[in-house]
Structure formats: C-alpha cells, structure tokens
C-alpha cells in the first residue's frame, strides 16, 4: 500500500475507535446520541457522495485531456514525418540539379 492509503486507513480507524469511546462515555441519553449520530452520518454520506462525484468528474476530464494530448502528439508526429519527406525530396532535387549542371 502507498503511504497515503496507509495514512487514510489509519485516520479512519482512529476516528472509528474515538467515536466508539466517545459513545461509551457520553453523558447524554441514548435517543439523543442516536439522533446526533444519524445526523452526522447523513452529513458524512452527503460529503462523501459529493467527493466521489468530484473525483469522477476529475477522472473524466483527465481522460479527455489524455485523449487530446494523444491527438496532439499524433498530429505532431505526422507533421514531422511530412517535413522529413519534404526535406528528402528537396535534397534529392538539389542533387539532381547538381548532376544536370555538371553534365
């Protein structure tokens, strides 16, 4: 696993353990605690959904950028090949002109 995955896993497990300990020592009634947990859980789910949506949008834009980059590279490669062919043709015609002049 990468360091960022390990860090995220550690952060989430630490938050979970902290939450369980906080629930065990909570001075509030169980129904109030459940309401608070329900509210926070729905908030976290909404935030997570928003984050997932953002990441998928970024992935789509990255895919589009890669596709456009590939097209630019292919176009540049084709132009370079065309320039090389033109240069070879020009050198060939120069050599032919030299031969015609020396004859």
Automatic annotation (TrEMBL):
Record key words, sorted: Coiled coil
One family name in Pfam for this protein: YtxH
Coiled coil (UniProt feature): 45-100
Name of the protein described by the UniProt record: Gas vesicle protein
Natural source organism: Fodinibius roseus
Lineage: Bacteria, Pseudomonadati, Balneolota, Balneolia, Balneolales
